[in-house]
Write a structure and sequence with these properties.
Layout (H helix, E strand, L loop, with lengths): L2 H22 L17 E10 L5 E12 L6 E4 L2 E5 L5 E5 L2 E4 L6 E10 L9 E10 L4 E12 L2 E11 L4 E12 L5
Antiparallel strand pairs: 1-2, 2-3, 2-4, 3-6, 4-5, 5-7, 6-7, 7-8, 8-9, 9-10, 10-11
Subunit structure: Component of the lipopolysaccharide transport and assembly complex. Interacts with LptA and the LptBFG transporter complex.
Membrane topology: Single-pass membrane protein
Subcellular location: Cell inner membrane
């Protein structure tokens, strides 16, 4: 047998062994685990102003971090500060531990230690405290389904569920309402 025939026979045996090995291992395909889905973008220490359909300020936002939700056009926020305008050009200040803004920027969900403070110079300064607050800036509306405490000079109200009309500073507590009135003493 010539060396060429021996080499050809060796290559043929190698090809057969490789084919047999691939056939036997065809069901043992190992799926590679994909890493975590990454955000499309991340902003750090930023400020932004969102405009409504008429080009007026819908809300302003400051936060140490904003992440685009993977696979969506929503935003996830870390310790955001929202400034929500009223009809007089003043702003409610709304803070929380975390926040979420939908794709159209017309729904905001705030969670954890939510504090909303009425605009400076309000005739009756008011502070709202809750764990959950949903804000609809195009309607100047804020709602909550959990316990909310509102305080203003001389008055503290606490109730479950709330609707706040931010433009005219009207707050409705919906159930289990308790009121404590402490008159101002001069």
């Amino acid at each position: 047998m010539s060396w060429r025939s021996a080499l050809l026979l060796l290559l043929l045996v190698g090809a057969l062994v490789s084919a047999w090995s691939a056939w036997v291992q065809r069901d043992e395909v190992v799926e590679v685990e994909a890493g975590p889905v990454r955000s499309g973008y991340v902003l750090h220490d930023f400020e932004l102003v969102t405009l409504d359909a008429e080009g007026k300020e819908s809300f302003s936002l400051k936060a140490p971090e904003l992440r685009q939700t993977p696979g969506a056009r929503t935003m996830e926020l870390t310790t955001p500060l929202f400034l929500m305008p009223d009809h007089h050009g003043s702003h409610w200040e709304v803070r929380s531990k975390s926040g979420w803004v939908n794709e159209d920027s017309d729904e905001i969900r705030l969670r954890g230690d939510v504090v909303a403070i009425s605009p400076m110079g309000a005739s009756r300064p008011t502070t709202m405290n809750t764990e959950e607050l949903d804000v609809f800036p195009n309607h100047n509306l804020a709602t909550s389904s959990v316990v909310v405490t509102t305080t203003s000079p001389g008055t503290t109200m606490r109730g479950t569920g709330m609707r706040a009309h931010l433009a005219d500073k009207r707050i409705e507590l919906l159930s289990e309402v308790r009121l404590r009135h402490e008159p101002n003493r001069r």
